[in-house]
Amino acid sequence: MARIVTDYLDHTAETYPDKPAFIDRKRSISFRELQNEAHHIASEIIALGLWKQPVVVYLNKSVECIAAFEGVTYSGNFYSPLDTKMPPERIHKIIDRLKPSAVITDSEHKSEAEEFSEGAHVILYDEAQKNAINYEGIENAKNRIIDSDILYVLFTSGSTGTPKGAIISHRGIIDLMGWATHDLGFGHDTVFANQSPFSFSFSVFEIYQTLKHGAITYITPEELFAQPARLMHYFNDNNADTLICVPSLLQMLSQLGVLEKIHVNSLKNIFFGGELFQMKYFNRWRREYPNVRFMISFGPTEVTDTCVYYEIKRHFRDDEVLPAGITCSNKDCFILDESNRLITEPGILGEMCVRGSGISYGYYNDPENTAKAFVQNPLNTSYPEIIYRTGDLVRYNEYGEFVYVCRKDFQIKHKGIRIELGEIEAAVSSFSEIEDCCCLYDSERQRITLFYTGKIDRSDLDSKLKVLLPDYMIPRKYVQLEIMPHNMNGKIDRPRLKEYMKEEGF
Amino acid sequence: MEKLLKILSSIKQDVDFQKEEGLFQKGIFSSLDMVYLVVGIGNEFGIEIDPEDITIENFDSAQRIMKLIERYKGK
User: Fold this and answer.
1) Residues of B numbered 13-72 whose beta carbons fall under 8 angstroms of chain A's beta carbons: which are they?
2) Across the interface, which of B35, B55, B59 has its CB nearest the CB of A230?
3) Measured between alpha carbons, how far is A98 from A92 in angstroms, rounded to an integer?
C-alpha cells in the first residue's frame, strides 16, 4: 500500500526495473532510469535546502517532465508544471501567485526561465544528472513527507482571467488512483497513449497509473494531433489500448473522415472528459468500436480531476445528452439548491458540491478565491468540514445519475424564466447538419442569439428546434458563421462572440 | 488563391499567409484548426481530402495547400 506517491516509483523501479515506462519521440525511459534521473533532480533540490516549497517544471512535453515531477516529490517539495507554449503574460501571472523557489528547465528554455523566475534557483535538467545522488537526503525527505503534504499545484483559468492554482495532496492522488485501478480497470498491461498536456489535470491518470502498476505510456508527439491518419497509425504501431483525451480530439477524427478508414485494432478503453461530446460523433465512434469501453470523467482539477464517472452501456440517440455519471468511490458528490438545501429527487437543478480527502485545500496564495469555493458544509453544523462548490449546475436523471446542465455563470433569466443555454446548444448540435454552435444571451436586446456553423439555413433550423424546445428557449436571432472562433484550449471563444454581438448588432 | 486566403485569415487574423511557412510547426495554427481548415476548404472547393493527405507538410503554407487543392480538382 502506498502511503505517499514516491512509494509507487520505488515499487515499480524494483519490480520492473527494465520495463519501458514512458516513451516520447526522442527516447524511452525504463522505471529504473526514471527513478535514477528523479533521484538526481531531488539531490539537486535538497542541496539548495528547500523543503515544502513550490518548484516549477518548465520543459517541453517529454519523459524528462515525469522524472522532474518525481524528483521534486522525492525532495519533499511540490511541483507546478508550466507549459512552454504558454503566453508570457499568463506565465507572469502564475509566477506572481506561486512565487517558486526553483525552476527546472533545460538549456533551450534557460533564458526564458531566468527572465520569469525572479531570483528563484534555475536547475538545468542535464546538469543535475551529472551530480552525485544524495541517497541519505532522499531517504530522510521521504520519511518526513506525510500524505497530506502538497504533491502539485495546477493552474486553471479563472473566469476573471487570473489563473487559480489548485493545491492537490499526495493523498488526493493515491485516493484517485485506488478508484481508477478498481473501477476503470487499468493495470500492469495497460498501454496508454497520452494526449493531455501535463499542465492539465487529466494527465494524472497516465502518469500515476503507469507509476503505480508498471504500465506504459506513449507520450504522443503533439504534431500528430493535426494529422489524423498518422495519429491512427501511431496508435496501431504502438498497440495503444487506452486513450484518455478530450472529446474534441475524437470529434475531430470523425469530422476528418479517418474514423471509418483506419481501424485501431488494439483499442480497449476510451476515457474522455473536460467538455461535452456531441452525441452524433460519439455514436459514430461507438459504431466503429462496439467492443471498446467508453467512459466519461467528470470533475474539475480541484477535486483531483474526477469526482463522477460513467461507463456508457445504454444506447443514446443523437438528440440525447450523455450523463456525467455516478460518484467515484471515497468521494461524496451532492446537489445543493440556492438556499443550501439538499436535492435528492430527479429533475431539480442545483449546484454540484463535493467532499472527500481528494478535495483541494484551495488555491495557492489566494485566500479570496479559496473562500468563495471552499466552504463549510452547510449541512453540517457540528464540526469543521470543508466542501468544494464546483459552480456546475447539475440534476439527477431517472436513473439517479448526475446530468451536467451548465456553468452557474451561463444560467440566464429570460422573461422571468430560468434558461440554461447549454440545453439549447445540446438540442442544436443534435442535428446532423450542425458542425458547431454556441448560444449567448444578449441582455441588452433581451434575446437569445445562436451562433452556428453547418449546412442548414436559419429558417430550417428554427422549425427543427421548435419540435425539441419550448418557445421561450427558441433563439430569436440566428447567426451562421463560416468558422467558429476557438481559444487556445480548443474551447469556443465566447468573449469574441460577445464582441461580435455588440459590434455587429447580431 | 483568394478564396483560400479568405479561409486562412478567418481562422487566424493578422498573418501574412502569402509569405508565411510552417503554419503548424510554428504554432500559427493549432491541431484543432486543421478541422476548420479541411472542412472550410472542402465546402469552398467542393472536394473531399483523404485523411492520409492531411499532413502538416501538405498544410505548411498557402502555396502548399493550394497545390493540394489543385491536385484534387484535377482528379
Assistant:
1) 24-25, 27, 29-36, 38-40, 43, 48, 50-52, 54-56, 59
2) B55
3) 10
Long-range CB pairs of A422-428, under 8 A, 24+ apart, other chains included: A422/A276, A423/A469, A423/A473, A424/A448, A424/A450, A424/A465, A424/A469, A424/A473, A424/A475, A425/A276, A426/A276, A426/A321, A427/A319, A427/A465, A427/A468, A427/A469, A428/A452, A428/A461, A428/A465
- Expressed as residue numbers, the domain containing B52 is 2-10+19-73
pLDDT tens digits, one per residue of A219-240: 999 999 999 999 999 999 999 9
Can you give the length of chain A in residues? 506
Pairing of strands A242-245, A269-273: parallel
The pairing of strands A374-376 and A386-396 is antiparallel
User: Which of A184, A181, A168 has its CA nearest to residue A208?
Assistant: A181
Question: Residue B11 — pLDDT band, cuts 50, 70, 90?
Answer: confident
Does A226 sit within 8 Å of B56, measured CB to CB?
A: yes
Question: Chain A contact for B4, CB < 8 A?
Answer: no
Q: CA angle A132-A66-A117, nearest 5°?
A: 80
Which residues share a beta bridge with A124? Answer: A105
Task: Report the relative pairing of strands A216-219 and A191-194 from DSSP bridges.
Answer: parallel
Domains of chain A: 6-303 (3.40.50.12780), 324-406 (2.30.38.10), 415-504 (3.30.300.30)
Task: Give rounded-to-5 percent helix, strand, coil for chain B.
Answer: 50, 0, 50
> Which residues touch A274 (CB under 8 Å, ≥6 apart)?
A200, A202, A246, A247, A297
- When CB atoms are compared, the residue of B30, B40, B56 closest to A482 is B40
The torsion region of residue A65 among left (phi > 0), alpha (psi -120 to 50) and beta comes to: alpha
Give tens-digit pLDDT for B18-41: 999 999 988 888 888 898 899 889
CA distance A206 to A219: 9
Domain count of chain B? 1
Radius of gyration of chain B (CA): 11
Best probe of the A interface among B31, B41, B43, B68, by most A CBs < 10 A, is: B31
- This prediction has a pTM of 0.88
Report the CATH number that the domain containing residue B31 is assigned in CATH.
Answer: 1.10.1200
Give A-chain residues touching B51 at CB under 8 angstroms.
228-229, 256-258, 261-262
E-strand ranges in A382-482 read: 386-396, 402-407, 411-414, 417-420, 434-442, 447-454, 477-480
